[in-house]
Structures are given as C-alpha cells and as structure tokens.
Design brief:
homodimer, about 210 residues, alpha/beta, Rossmann fold, 9 strands, about 40% helix, about 20% strand, globular, disordered N terminus
C-alpha cells in the first residue's frame, strides 16, 4: 500500500458562477475583453440585447443582437437566467450556455447590472459577486457622503444614479477598482479572486 | 472642478496578517521559500526556536536559533505573538517585526501549527487563515473517513495526528493543496488569496 503514490482524491471545487456588476462606466466591458485574452479557462457569458449594434461591435461576441420579438420569445420560453429593460432596451443572459459550461466544469462569468445581480443572488447565493468601480466613482461616493451642494445638475444626476447603485454594494463579495490606464490590474484582481475562491474552505469537501 | 482628474481617494485596504498552517509535511517551508522569491511585497515572519539548526539552515533566515534561556526571556517579556512547545522544542513568533511590518502597510505571513493558529484566531479574527495539505494528506483523510483497519501502527499514528490537526480545519478560510512537484502552484494560490482578500468588500470602507 503506497500512500505517497496515491493520486489526489479530494474532489476538486465546483466550477464558479462569477457575477460581474458595478457602477456604470466602471469598465466592465474592458475587463471582460481582458479576461478573453487571459489564459484562464473561463466561459464569458454573452448577453442578448435589443439595443442597436454600435460601431466595432460584433454579433455573437460583444452581444447577441436580437429583435424585440425574438427577445420576447426568449423571455416567454424561460431561456434567460435574468433580463432587464434599461432605458428602453432589453438585456438578458441566455441560461443554456451558462448551464452547459458549468456542467462541463468550467467557471462562468456574467456581466449584469446591480439589480440583476441582486436577483441572481436570491437564486444562486453561492455565486461570487464582484462590484467594479473606478477611482472616479469612489470620488463620486465621497462627494455624496459629504453632501456638497455645489454640484451641477448633470453631476447630481450621476451622483444619484451612483448612489442608487452603491446601495447594492453590501450584497457583493468583492470590489475591484479599475484604475485608469491599468485595466490589466483589474483583470488580474478578478483572476486572483477566482483562484482564491477555489481555495475557500467553504467550497471544498475536506472537513472531517 | 474636475472629477476625472481626482486621485483615488478611497482608503486602500489595511495590510493583511496571513496565518499559514496545516498538516505536518504539507510543505509550508517550501511555500515560504517560494514566496520569498516572488515579487509580492510580503513580510515573512521568521520564528524563534530552541531546536538545533539543521544542515543547510541559516540563522535569521529559516529561524532565529536561540537558547532555551533566551526563549524563556522572550516569553517573560511578552515579546512573542504566540509560542508552543512541540516535542520538547520551543517555537515562537516574535511580535515586534510583525507589528512593524503591518504599521508600515506591509502584509505579513506567519507560519504556525494549528493550535497556534487557533490562538491567533481568538486575538486577531481579521487575519487570513490558510490551511495547507498535500494530496497525500487528503488521501490520509479519506482513509480516516473510511475507517480502514489494515493500517500499520506508524500509519495509524500519522492518521491520528492528521485527524487531530484536521479538526481545526473549519476555523480556516482557505485550503491550499500542495501537489507534489508543483510548489509554484501552491505559491500562486497564496499570492492570489492575498490579492483577492484585498478586494473583499468587508475590508474596504466603501459602503454608503
């Protein structure tokens, strides 16, 4: 009986569902693009949307661009993990590719607005919730806290939106700060979070 | 008033005290050696011990080798964060270098046995607790669970010791598996854990 030669027998941790959310303009899309280029095996969920395709965007890569009728069909058939209407455009996460990837043992990352993240938290509390901010947004928050009055109308609106979004912060596990010009650092943080979460005792079946 | 040009104002997360513990023979020293070679700014605590210096070990690098009288002095003066007598030899963590490093904003890692880790958990619950195992130890655990009876006396003793150590597992935050020949992977896991912990919401003062 050779114990030394035995193969690792503890079950590997289950694949993770990583929910990437955060303030508008925090750079979530840039981080996803960075993750696509990284060498970690990660399924990046591609959302469906009814909003018009922008210059440079590719169908099936940046988004699945669909008609409102098609989107309604996806809703009716229960084919979306989560969906929302944001300023008149629909956004949704097709459930099947997420399920398939998780079943194949692959980690999955989905990008979603804070309200959607809150919904996923209710369905899948074991998912990993990451909130992205920029230092600029942290400045916004600081200003909100100080309740300054010299803000312009535009700033005030942004402050209000950010404040509304920040209210969801406590339900998240991690905050990733996207410093301007250092997107790779934010990508590295997310890679580290995924690696660390796989080491969490709570995700292993090691207790005796 | 230019918000875009404002510098990051949210306070950076506090430096971490990382407690590295785990089963005997899991490779903690090898991992510390790997961390020394990594480029992350980390203060690696050097324990004091009364056990004789082994071939290849350097005083002030692997351990501070001290006499029993000197060790007793360190205990009496309260200069040890934690200490223990293991099979007749004393081991202790000098408190001052740890405090100095943390005050300078540097993360600190201390190696300690599981009982010592439990003591530190009571004093400093905010520390990060990592439990190291090898697949071999996981195999040990599996055998313990299955309560096989064909074990030799020696194995039985190791199983008992491991079982005793494993009982402390639930107080740890992370488990790092040191696969034979892949020490760099275990080092990378610990680096990722430190990076991820700095992103944890609970460690940031961002809530509104």
């Amino acid at each position: 009986m050779s114990l030394e030669n035995s193969s690792p027998l503890a079950p590997p941790p289950l694949p993770l569902l990583v929910v990437l959310s955060g303030l508008s303009g925090a750079g979530k899309d840039a981080v996803l693009a960075g993750l696509r280029l990284s060498d970690i095996p990660l399924h990046i969920s591609i959302s469906a949307t009814t909003r018009p395709r922008r210059a440079g965007e590719k169908d099936g890569f940046d988004y699945h661009f669909v008609t409102t009728a098609r989107f309604q069909e996806l809703i009716d058939r229960g084919e979306l993990l989560e969906w929302a209407n944001v300023y008149g455009n629909y956004y949704g996460i097709p459930a099947e590719p997420v399920r398939r990837a998780l079943q194949a043992g692959k980690d999955v990352i989905v990008k979603i607005d804070v309200q959607g993240a809150a919904t996923i938290k209710k369905i899948l509390p074991g998912a990993v919730f990451i909130f992205m901010v920029t230092p600029y947004m942290e400045e916004l928050e600081k200003r909100l806290k100080q309740r300054r009055t010299e803000t312009s109308d535009t700033l005030e609106l942004r402050l209000k939106t950010a404040a509304e979004e920040m209210r969801h912060l406590p339900m998240f596990d991690y905050v990733v700060v996207n410093h301007p010009g250092e997107i790779n650092q934010a990508v590295a943080d997310i890679v580290a979070i995924i690696k660390a979460e796989k080491c969490r005792i709570a995700r292993r079946e090691l207790s005796v």
